[in-house]
Task: structure prediction
Amino acid sequence: ILKDNKNLRRFHNDALRGATGPDVLDISSTALESLPSYGLEAIQVLNATSSYSLKRLPPLEKFSSLLEAVLTYPSHCCAFRNLRTEKQNFLLSIFENFSEECESTMRKPANEMLDDSNNTSLWSADRNMYPFGTDEESSPYSYSTIFDDSEMAGFDFEYDFCQPKVLTCTPEPDAFNPCEDILGYSFLRVLIWFINILAIAGNFTVLLVLLTSHYKLTVPRFLMCNLSFADFCMGLYLLLIASVDAQTSGQYYNHAIDWQTGAGCSTAGFFTVFASELSVYTLTVITLERWHTITYAMQLQRKLRLRHAVPIMLGGWLFSVGIAALPLLGVSSYMKVSICLPMDIETSLSQAYILLILALNVVAFIVICACYIKIYLAVQNPELVAANKDTKVAKRMAILIFTDFTCMAPISFFAISAAFKVPLITVTNSKILLVLFYPVNSCANPFLYAIFTKAFRRDFFVLMSKFGCCKSRAELYRMNYFSAYNSNCKNGGAATAPSKASRALLLLSALEK
Result:
């Protein structure tokens, strides 16, 4: 009656209340969205294959007699696995010496086991060997003193305890969706909140200060705005993952399908791929801009201007949006794992998509490293540049390269191996990379490229002075800025040829922008 009924969408909550059955409930290939909360106690076999609308199960304690479940989604089997473990742990906490009694029971002849079937005591009648008696009045440890009469009904020691019936459930959870919450580890739940708040607050502050500054919008400022927005989106992704994990903690199996197939996971996946690619693209452009500024310091006609930077970044936006949208169009998928990353490599096109992203990230890292090495070599001259300034340049570049390497290297290494279908790390352990390494740049970039620079501190104090705070500091920064500006104007006409010393000083100022 129920099976293959495509129009069956609702099962009345009281439909099975008071019924003596059914033993088998087959709702496969139906459009049912939920099961009733009453009358499920007698069901021993539940068949719900191809029931794609059934995304949530009723309270698990209702399936007190269930022995076999054939379901649509693997995540639902996680619920029954956890339930079985809880029952076993409960029995183990009561019967400390059950293994010895079960072992002796299994050695009994069949006729003796039948003769003893009416014995309701926990252990055999030999009180010298076992601590429990057979007389309910003389022993406080008989079955009936531990369980209610309703729980004792039909209970047989040899078969119900020594040989308990095991619940089987299919399909089993796979490697991409293990039986765990979204983040898996408890310590990651704490860290992800700290990291996403740091990324959101840091990048929002940078955007606010740069966009409200009354100083001229230069190329470095424009690029920094793009970088901060990309890293801000990464913070939003982490916030979304952390929020859903907190809401579904301990019961993710009942929310997995709604989350991974819904708009929430697709939005999170789009955010993270878009943010990651735009951030890497912008970091590469910033590095190339610094290299170009140092290399052609005295050739003003070759200076990169805002009219050049805008179309360059527009191309980066279009590229990042396109790459992030492909999984929504069927190339790979954000639905494969609970953390909504495009890990689907079932088809050759999906595999090529993942490898393309990883290859571009590796190339970007190589370009960044090469540019900073060339910049450092271009300005390194102990005879012309003070040692402390030379050291400052080297340290600043080392930090920038190290943060990029920390973010890209571990993820790229394990992702490339997984893309070739030779995974070296489980999805559970990959969540550690997601929280500890993946957002390193998003947290560090606002500090390394903006907050720790003099130009940003000047803009920040000027902004605060508009609200009546830090007026003296703001005025000091204004004076220093105009002094440096006038000095550059006076010396600008006298410079006829670039020197390594002047380029070193220019680099230091570029790193401070």
The first strand starts at residue 24 and ends at 26. The longest helix spans residues 263-295.
